[in-house]
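Lecture notes, unit on protein representations.

Consider one protein chain, 174 amino acids long.
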Amino acid sequence: VGRVASRLCQELRLARPPVCRQAVQLFQGDVVAAWARSVLRPPEACGLLLGPGCGHWDILGAWNLSLPAAPKPPVRPPTPPPPGAPTARILFLTDLHWDRQYVPGSAAACPDPLCCRGALREGPGTAGFWGTYSKCDLPLHTIDALLAQLPNSTSHTSNSSRNGTGGFAAAYWT
């Protein structure tokens, strides 16, 4: 499966050959496991992946979904908490993608799925020290700097809650 997928990726020019090989190596186990559990028949899977020349797949096909006969509950608008109700500070970090191979000064535009890697280059269009808005993930020192700026205490007193400098009751990192 891996050899076929890698060859197909290269023949369809989805990515450069080394990227095709690396992507297949990285994901082939997951893809095979998903296909083994799939309800799609082979022609449907082929049509989904490669288009109508290979098979037929219709997202609006024969779906059968039964809903319970119970009536929908009435809508109750939320009520705000009363003045003086306790509060908590929550930290929510999301989409902090770390690239172990990030190189400041490397090309920020490239034909690969992920750039800002490899040799240094001169001129505009290079990866910045803290990161670059392009096809790049973040260098570790950017994430370290972000976390270093956060309060390091999880306790909060009435003073710290009011001036916004206290710790967090919980942190979610997704």
